[in-house]
Write a structure and sequence with these properties.
mainly alpha
Length: about 350
């Protein structure tokens, strides 16, 4: 039941963030760490993106039906799906080739935080850049092959968790002259083959890990993500018709900084072995503490005293003792231990 609740929460996170330029995978990695949800070793976070694909298909169902009926007679429809295939290919090929390395190396909170910050800066810079409105492509069905190639190259960066697939493709679209609505709509259509393909590849590669319980978690996460992704698609399309992406840039930077402080800073402290040390002596008396540590480095680090913490090391023990006693009493205590053979 606990994992089921966590799956629902992660489904909500995925649905709300998949099409916003804030990185759904990055948010899922952070949320999974916070919830201590490690089911399927990253497969869950990737597979439930298929819920977002279903949401896009349902949202654009009328247009997709029209395209299916007119694909042989409408050049704009053929151009749309040709540019989608071209833009999807680079991320598809590289993603499959580096799948294992990406999951093992890049699915960490620190990578997510850095990618959020860099992506946020990029959004702010591109939105503030002067743009020639007469050169914009206003329709997502009117992209050139060059624009599709460049958007596809930008999408490759989204293989790094925290970059955001929608963010990379929307930024790429803005950079090559698409209007905000056109870049956003093209990003949504591009999600159908990219996210759908990624989910199916991940599922096929992880079949031996999926049992009845895991299948239930995947189903719950997918359904929940579909519902919330459907809501976010409509909201984002309304938003971009009147606003810029600059607020998302600031959000990414703020979120990245918070994640760094929550995960990177405590990790560095722990790696240095400092999280359990008692504060040492003042700078003016540090020399005496160094002498004590050097002269008694061979002592058992856990003699019978509440001032010592077993297993923390001699320096920490002496530092803790020294911080609570005067210099004279420390030397007297050490001499007493020498006499009794401690």
């Amino acid at each position: 039941m606990e994992d089921l609740i966590k799956a629902v929460i992660l489904g909500i996170v995925e649905g709300l963030t998949e099409f916003l330029p804030v990185s759904s995978t990055g948010h899922l990695i952070i949320a999974s760490n916070v919830l201590d949800f490690q089911a399927l070793g990253g497969t869950f976070e990737i597979f439930i993106q298929i819920g977002a694909v279903l949401a896009v298909v349902w949202f654009y169902r009328a247009e997709l039906i029209r395209q299916a009926r007119t694909v042989t007679t409408d050049p704009a429809v053929r151009n749309l799906w040709l540019t989608i295939v071209i833009a999807a290919a680079p991320a598809g090929v590289i993603g499959i080739a580096l799948r294992g390395w990406i999951k093992a190396t890049l699915f960490t909170p620190v990578v997510v935080a850095l990618a959020l910050i860099v992506g946020g800066i990029a959004f702010i810079v591109i939105e503030r850049r002067p743009r020639a409105s007469e050169a914009e492509t206003e329709s997502h069905e009117a992209l050139t092959l060059r624009q599709a190639i460049l958007i596809g190259a930008a999408q490759v960066l989204a293989l790094i968790p925290g970059v955001s697939r929608s963010g990379a493709t929307i930024l790429g679209g803005l950079a090559v002259g698409l209007s905000r609505p056109a870049a956003t709509a093209f990003s949504f259509f591009l999600a159908i083959p990219v996210l759908g393909g990624a989910a199916l590849v991940e599922l096929a590669a992880s079949l031996d890990e999926i049992n009845g319980d895991a299948l239930g978690l995947l189903a719950v996460g997918t359904v929940v993500s579909m519902i919330f992704a459907f809501l976010s698609v409509g909201w984002l399309l309304r938003y971009v018709s009147r606003n810029t992406f600059t607020p998302f840039g600031w959000y990414r930077i703020a979120a990245g900084v918070v994640v760094l402080f929550l995960f990177a800073v405590p990790g560095q402290v722990k790696a240095a072995g400092l999280e359990t040390l008692t504060p040492g002596p003042s700078p003016s008396r540090r020399g005496e503490a160094d002498v004590l540590s050097a002269d008694y480095s061979a002592l058992d680090p856990s003699p019978p005293s509440p001032l010592f913490h077993k297993g923390r090391g001699e320096t920490a023990a002496i530092g803790g003792l020294y911080s609570s006693l005067s210099t004279q009493s420390v030397f007297e205590k050490l001499k007493e231990w020498d006499k009794v053979g401690v």
